[in-house]
Specification:
Rossmann fold; alpha/beta; elongated; five-stranded parallel beta sheet; 42% helix
């Protein structure tokens, strides 16, 4: 169902597999089936909430035990009779409008110097990166367009800009030109696809510090950012 609707996903058949997967990727939504014992589900959800207080969780309750998990912050509970369409609607609702369960200041405090500006026209992508980087000690700003990015950069003076290449209106390369003209010292990392190699050559010539290819591992991104902020170079 998810593949038919062009949604990327990770799958795990046990709490341990789920936790291991979450160490490497931060999904937009966590869907948990309660076919297993309530104790297994509770242990998984407690571990998830301990590390990520803002990840939307959708439960599909095959065992009628969801009410026993009321102390854990869960965004949505669905019965075992839920249709594929209803499940998809619920997943899309949280992907498009993720609701934090805890104020960001209570989740993590910035421990690295400087700030990261994420520039992307996809709200889900921005939210995923913002949550991951904030939970890993970065101070994060976001912008949904090139014009918004320029305004943010002028106001907040970010250390590193993660700049998507493909955006409507002012694209990434045009935004890069203006960013470097107004703030030559800012480090810009272009976010691009494999088919945009020529564009990356142009971006590097215009002053981009580096580029990263989609899809990418979030821990790899963290390593690049730390090297940029702490050492001023790519790893």
């Amino acid at each position: 169902m998810l593949t038919r609707h062009h949604l990327a996903y990770l799958a795990a058949s046990s709490p341990d597999e789920a936790i291991e997967a979450l160490k490497h990727e931060r999904p937009g939504v966590l869907v948990v089936s309660l076919e297993r014992s309530n104790g297994d589900a509770a242990a998984l959800l407690e571990r998830v909430r301990a590390s990520d207080a803002r990840l939307p969780i959708v439960l599909v309750d095959h065992a009628n035990t969801a009410s026993q998990l009321s102390e854990i912050a869960i965004q949505s509970r669905l019965p075992s009779t839920v249709t594929d369409h209803a499940l998809l609607v619920e997943i899309m609702r949280w992907l498009q409008d993720p609701a934090p369960t805890t104020p960001r200041s209570a989740v993590a405090q910035a421990r690295w110097p400087g700030s990261i500006l994420i520039v992307d026209d996809e709200p889900k992508f921005r939210a995923v990166l913002e949550d991951f980087l904030t939970s890993h000690g970065f101070s994060v700003l976001t912008a949904g367009s090139g014009l918004e990015a320029l305004a943010q950069a002028q106001h907040a003076n970010p250390t590193v800009v993660l700049l998507d290449v493909r955006m409507p209106g002012m694209n990434g390369v045009a935004t890069l030109k203006q960013l470097k003209a107004s703030a030559p010292a800012v480090m810009v990392i272009m976010v691009t696809g494999l088919e945009e190699e020529h564009t990356m050559e142009e971006a590097l010539a215009l002053g981009a510090s580096d580029y990263i290819l989609k899809p990418f591992n979030l821990e790899y991104l963290e390593t690049i950012l730390l090297n940029k902020i702490l050492l001023g170079r790519a790893p």
